[in-house]
Amino acid sequence: MWIVCVSVGKLVILQASLLTKKQLCYLLDFFSYFRKHIESFADKARLLTDLTAKRVPQNIVPLWTEHHAEALNALKLELVRACETSLHTVQLDRPYDVYVDTSGYAIAGILAQKNESGIEYPIAFFSSKLTPTQKNWATIEREAYAVLIAVTKYKSWFYGSKITIHSDHNPLTYLTDSAPKSSTKLMRWSLALAEFNLEFRYLPGKRNVPADTLSRPEGSYQ
């Protein structure tokens, strides 16, 4: 089991143990998304990617060594170091991309911007555990709540800027269509978001790896 959490704008990954190859693949996908910001990513991740080969069984516990743990720690430190330097700078005159996702446990997302060359840079991470009541919400409501949290958290940056919300649940667009007519709660949320220049774009879950990873605090993947 491994846990990803966000605290004071810094990414922290706490790893108890990786039990399966599937869990390792998912974690590597998360780091790979930021490979442009991790120098010599392929080399640093080599020992870990070797464990994802077809010949390797799903249970990787017997194969896990101190060298694998060191390789994983190296990737964590590289990403944390990147977040503490150039990745956190906000350009107030540029559009924003917000990637959100939800699981049965939490909502989470990543705030990013593109530079002059079109390279996307993460500038903030956020996540929040769901209360027992919120866990019973429909998926569309949890996704909409993730958007609301993001916009509220970074509203001082967002005013006057274009914001593109990327979600792996297409019904999120329902928030600005018929859903507000049938749900008082969603109507309130829709009104709260109306003051911002928002655009919603559907993003399949396989391409929304960072937000999906952050929303699953106990590594529970289906």
Explained architecture:
With 222 residues, the protein is of the alpha/beta class. It has two domains: 2-86, no CATH class; 89-214, Ubiquitin-like (UB roll), CATH 3.10.20.370. The chain is built from ten helices and seven strands. It has helices spanning 21-33, 41-44, 46-50, 66-84, 132-135, 139-153, 155-158, 179-182, 184-193, 209-214, and strands spanning 2-7, 10-15, 96-102, 106-114, 120-129, 162-167, 197-202. The strands form two sheets. Strands 5-4-3-6-7 form a five-stranded mixed β-sheet. Strands 1-2 form a two-stranded antiparallel ribbon. The chain is globular.
In one word, what is the shape?
globular
Rg, alpha carbons: 18 Å
* Total number of strands: 7
Taken in chain order, the helices and strands follow as EEHHHHEEEHHHEHHEH
Compact overview of the structure:
The chain has 222 residues and is an alpha/beta fold.
Question: Layout of helices and strands, plus pairs?
Answer:
Elements: E1 2-7, E2 10-15, H1 21-33, H2 41-44, H3 46-50, H4 66-84, E3 96-102, E4 106-114, E5 120-129, H5 132-135, H6 139-153, H7 155-158, E6 162-167, H8 179-182, H9 184-193, E7 197-202, H10 209-214
Parallel strand pairs: 3-6, 6-7
Antiparallel strand pairs: 1-2, 3-4, 4-5
Helix pairs in contact: 6-9
